[in-house]
Amino acid sequence: MVIDIEYPERMGDIKEALLKLIRHRRRDFAREQIVFYLVGKQSAAHKRAIGVYRGQSSPDLILTVQQILDLTGK
Fold first, then answer.
1. Could you give the CA distance from residue 55 to residue 50 in angstroms, rounded to a whole number?
2. What residue spans define the domains of the chain?
3. Dihedral (Cα; 31, 29, 10, 46), 10-degree rounding
4. What whole-number percentage of the chain has pLDDT above 70?
5. pLDDT given for residue 45 in this prediction
6. Which of 27, 48, 34, 31 is nearest to 2 (CA)?
7. Long-range residue pairs from 35-44, CB within 8 A, at least 24 positions apart, any chain
8. pTM assigned to the model
9. E strands along 1-74, which residues?
10. 35-37/2-4 β-pairing
11. What is the C-alpha to C-alpha distance for residues 53 and 47, in angstroms, rounded to an integer?
12. Which of 4, 9, 20, 32 could form a disulfide with 39 if both were Cys (CB 3.0 to 4.6 A apart)?
């Protein structure tokens, strides 16, 4: 799982919150499976995400915890 570095000082909190949600269903989910990466403001991913956040467009899909876990292959 790759998460954009938006708030560097909160990365630990974000990772812990995600782990808590994921491990509710999958106890063996490794914390190393969550990584932070600087996406960049000019990337298509950033432009799409900010448009959804601002309500200017709709998300392509909304993932459930189970769908995220299924994608990890665990």
1. 8
2. 2-72
3. 100
4. 96
5. 87
6. 34
7. 35/1, 35/2, 35/3, 36/2, 36/3, 36/4, 36/5, 36/11, 37/2, 37/3, 37/4, 37/5, 38/4, 38/5, 39/4, 39/5
8. 0.65
9. 2-4, 35-37
10. parallel
11. 10
12. 4
Q: Tens digit of pLDDT for each residue in 15-30?
A: 999 999 888 888 888 9
Contact 58, 52 (CB under 8 A): yes
Our measurement of the distance from residue 64's CA atom to the centroid of its chain's CA atoms, rounded to an integer in Å, reads 11
C-beta separation of 25 from 19 below 8 A: no
Place of tokens 């999958």: 26
**pLDDT tens-digit map of 41-60:** 899 988 998 999 999 999 99
Tokens 């989910």 identify what position? 29
> Which residue type sits at 10?
R
Q: Which helix (H) or strand (E) holds 46?
A: helix 44-53
